[in-house]
Amino acid sequence: MKENFFDRSIDELAGILGDLDQTPYRLDQVLNWAYVRTVPDFSGMTNLSADLREKLSDILDLDPLTLVDRKRSRDGIEKLLLSLGDGELLETVLIQEKGYMTQCLSTQAGCGMGCTFCESARDGLSRDLTRGEILAQVATASRVLGNRRRLRNLVFMGMGEPLKNLDEVVPSLEIILDSRGFDFSPRRVTVSTCGWVPGIKRLSDEGLGVNLAISLNAGDDGTRSEIMPVNRKYPIKNLIKAAREYPLSNRQRITFEYVLIDGLNDSDDDAMKVAGLLKGIPCKVNLIPCNETSADYMPSPEARSTAFQKVLLDSGILATVRSSRGSEIGAACGQLRASSK
Length: 341
Ligand code: SF4
Known about the structure:
Strand content: 15-25%
Radius of gyration: 21 Å
Mean pLDDT: 92
Bound molecules: iron/sulfur cluster
Number of strands: 14
Number of domains: 2
Shape: elongated
Helix content: 25-40%
CATH superfamily of the largest domain: Aldolase class I
């Protein structure tokens, strides 16, 4: 079976090419075709000899993910359901905003973190994705869009907890940021976590400069542990400490995601607690009325969301209410995969 091209580091590709063809610039040419032009097979690499193209296509696969389903919502959200080599499914979402695209990447098939408001948690974790499976999502989306440059932002917010799969996520980030790879600015890349504290520390140490988003969702340990089991192991105090220690450059902020669930975490009192926790952290809060998934949760009414936001703003914390887009195609994480299963 052929190997996923994107599982190979740039140094490993240099080694493979060196064994097959000694011509200078071959590596740069292949990287350009794969990461900038995102061709789906080696036959498209027209400045390589036919012999080399054939040899490469015998061992490496530039298109390892099969597009199984594609849905587009009226409000500009496109969701791709992709099949992996072993039949596992993953999903990636494209979000259109003012002429540019943000892609939401998955890092695991399923998720073992058990957040009660999330569809990805329903069947637990199937397996981690490899670095190549993470990177191939970017290549596939670039092909669907016709051009890699149409992708402006990448967010690691799809299925799975990225910080539980850092051995694969970090090498994928290195290629995403490498000027010979997908060449994204670190400012355009965000890694999101449910609060896996040792992972935040390791990501800090990697010094990649990417943005950090934390899914907070409660202002006290009782409520947070009820909806996010990770909180029993790493309570809010530890999480906020790790967030305070995350290295930020000028004007960079940590994003706190807060899913508003009617009657559960959306009172003014909850907002006051959140404001107290985040005091002094360069941050912004995204308030997201929850999707109606299979759990027994309802989104907070608009007036409640606005009142929650006002408490934060009055406390000097930047806060926006984000609309829950793409609901008719199941664009919340895990929904398309869950319905397909
Ligand atoms: S919200 Fe994220 S971490 Fe929690 S279960 Fe869903 S995918 Fe996993």
